[in-house]
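Async update (no meeting this week)

Hi team, since we skipped the sync, here's where things stand on the single-chain job. The sequence we agreed to prioritize is pasted below, unchanged from the tracker. I ran it this morning and attached the output directly underneath so nobody has to dig for it. Comments welcome in thread, and please keep replies under the output.
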Amino acid sequence: MKYMLICILFALQLFATPYVQAAPNIPEPNTKQFYIQDFANVVDANTRVQINTMGKELRDKTKAQVVAVTVKSLDRENIAEYANLMFRKWKIGEKDLNNGILILVAVDDRKARIEVGYGLEGALPDAKTGRIIREKMFPNFKENKFGDGILSAYTEINQIILNEYNHNKKNAPAVDEDEDDIVYIIVILIIFGIVGLIIFCIVKFFFSGGGGGNSSSGYSSTYYDSHSSSSDDYDSGGGGDSGGGGADDSW
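Output:
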């Protein structure tokens, strides 16, 4: 009975092993050039600079993040699953807005996918992302111009997102001019109050005999100097999540 049980367990292990797959090895992003991760080394330096600059400017204006990634191979992983895992691991887009986009290109597998966060599925539905892949990326990829194809797709997606956020701004409620006047009056009153307080303190200081003291009123710039580093050159995901939307295709 004991040997029969061992044989059964061994047979079950042999049967189940082909169906057990390890999770794909998602690389860590380079925070120096977060918006273009060229693991396949197919994008030239000038194009990487263009994409990274465009990505930073887009985030500053809209909080949205568009990240382009190239890998050599998916290691037989489904590209949609791979993109979804990468999107969530890197947390692309803002946490509360989920406004991230991942452009993934697997060079050796000849596959590409655009993964879209929840917050941008209206601006970039599956049909539109599929068209961008076929029209902007694949014609260049077939000529081994991966940098050109990714830049072309990135530029169009960037413009779509800018249009989306500009449209929202145009539809925002107008500010009442009377409210602006009240704010200005309050600010002026506060300024007069501060000036009056300063004059009062100076007069009291001199007439109370305290003018003999001597102290330095300067401030140390050590804190500001130590915090004015090039930290803006680094970036990372903002906590966003993938909505599972997007499109992929093979060239």
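Quick observations from my side:
Helices lie at 2-16, 45-62, 79-90, 126-141, 146-170, 177-207, 222-227.
The mean pLDDT is 79.
Reply here if anything looks off.
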